[in-house]
Write a structure and sequence with these properties.
- It contains 12 helices and 12 strands.
- It is of the alpha/beta class.
- The strands form 3 sheets. A 6-stranded mixed beta sheet has the order 1-2-4-3-5-11. A 4-stranded antiparallel beta sheet has the order 8-9-7-10, with helices on one face. A two-stranded parallel sheet has the order 6-12.
- Helix 4 links the parallel strand 3 (82-87) and strand 4 (125-130).
- Helix 2 (21-33) runs antiparallel to helix 4, helix 6 packs across helix 7 (250-271) and helix 11 (354-376) packs across helix 12.
Length: 399
Amino acid sequence: MSGCTTQEQKVQIIAAVDSLAAEASTLALNLHANPELSFEEIESAAALIAPLRAAGFEIEEQLAGLPTAFRATFDSGKPGPVVALLAEYDALRDLGHACGHNLIGTASVTAALALKQVSHLLKGRLEVIGTPAEEEGGGKIILSEKGIFDQVDAVMMFHPRDKTMVVRGGLACVDAVFKFYGKAAHAASAPQNGISALDAVIHTFNGINALRQLFTDDVRVHGIITDGGSATNIVPAFGEAKFLMRANTVVGLSGVKQKVFDAARGAALMTGARLEIEEGLTYAERNNNLTLAQYFQQNLEALGVEVVPPPVSGGIGSSDIGNVSQITAAIHPYIRIGDVLPHTPEFAAAAGSAPGLEGMLQGAKALAMTALDLYQDETKLHAVREEFLSWQSKQSLRG
């Protein structure tokens, strides 16, 4: 047992992260320069695994059958909690790391390496879980369904943003692809012989737009046409559109989804096209563990980082961390890296900038310091678990 005070122990953590800063920055910039899409993050996962393996972590690759998922574990050999730091590392098509996942993955790995340097302070088990395909595919959903988080006491990660906020909501969401099959015909000489799959797509958009006045304020539905035909003088035999639906809760989302699907079915009926629906995985709403978030905020403020309140309403998206937060205590705080918003070219640039790297190191320090709180202070651990179990009990009663 260490004779150091908690403050002195955290000074050791900060020094450990600082000692890793150059290595961490190189790793983050390497990921940034070589973006990989969801479920294709082969090199990114390998780059994050390498320093963990070198530090003596036990590595499990292809976790839960996902080729680019992994788990790196350090077991202290002493009884205590299981704390998991989540790594994201997929990029956006055409934009690269415009959501800063290069910083997210590197921060969690760096925090784990720093904790390993002061392993005499740890009890229980430390895990870094590599979670692919947050942008498209819901890697954490698949890992959740495979039981990867069932024995974890607390889960943490950080996300870069334009503001530093420790608590922020997340909408439930689901995507769907509508595939319409019509019949080709010459658009000038024999249009009467055709069935326009493109018309079915357009009617779907019109039907959904007619529904918007009936949706509650939390609902968002947005779509794109991914296939509308190949030539103007041919009645399109195939049309395809992809939609993303969001709502405050999974329960509310279910009703939205039914209405959107019915709009597509109606469009198929109107045009005579045949419809196939491919539904994606459902991202659950986020259950922020407020107690754990408070500890994270205290550690950020100890680093001199100012924390601001989240928006009163609106301004939120979705993430598969929501599904993890239904299983165990979880936080998904944000750290400012500039006056930029995610999913833009400007954010991609910030994710490879000096302020981006600074925010990443702040995140790594706060993650490691908060993990130490749970390892060293049974009262804090109990408070985190008690909040989650109380929430879980209330959910069971509602169900």
